[in-house]
Amino acid sequence: MKPFELVDHTADVGIKAHGSTLTELFENAARGMFAVIAGEKYKAQGSKIEKKIEINENKDNLEEILVSWLSELLDIFNREKIYLDNFRILSLNNNGIKAETSGVNIDLYQSDLYTEIKAVTFHNLKIEEDIEGFSCTIIFDV
Fold first, then answer.
1. Residue pLDDT, tens place only, 55-66
2. Which of 85, 106, 134, 140 would you label with 74, given CA atoms 20 to 30 Å apart?
């Protein structure tokens, strides 16, 4: 099973993320979002910068945690100009998420990045479980 795949959407862009576990689903959703930003074959070069992420929000469902997770990663990318390419979820539940991630600083004007994502949306977002694991479709506002 592919970790994620691009999904056609009329005005925006989306991915369908997969994972054998919920943590793998969240990690693959992050990989998919950065593939939308830079293309699936983009390899950032440079010294690794490590970031610890802790989101403490008592939410009703994991979809809200997923949007918070991806939004935090997108904020780091936009604010600190760090292209993140390594994701490791340490803990995940309805109270939040703890993770370690790493990436490299990039110059947005000299990089080959393709798509600017403005926001992660809740549009038709639902985490589903089947015999292969978990999946969800995530639409990004571009």
1. 998 777 899 999
2. 134
Task: Report if pTM > 0.70.
Answer: yes
For residues 114 and 38, the answer to whether their CB atoms sit within 8 Å is yes
Please state, in angstroms and rounded to a whole number, the distance separating the CA atoms of residues 17 and 87. 14
Handedness of CA 126, 137, 20, 93 (dihedral sign): negative
Rg (CA), the chain: 14
| β-bridge partners, 17 | 4, 136
Place of tokens 């943590």: 23
* Residue ranges making up the domain that contains 79: 4-141
- Count up the domains in the chain and report the number: 1
* Per-residue pLDDT reduced to its tens digit, 34-59: 999 987 777 777 889 999 999 998 77
Q: What is the CATH number of the domain that holds 40?
A: 3.55.10.10
Of 46, 37, 99, the closest CA to residue 72 belongs to 99
Separation of alpha carbons 91 and 20, rounded Å: 16
Helical H runs in the chain?
Answer: 22-38, 62-80
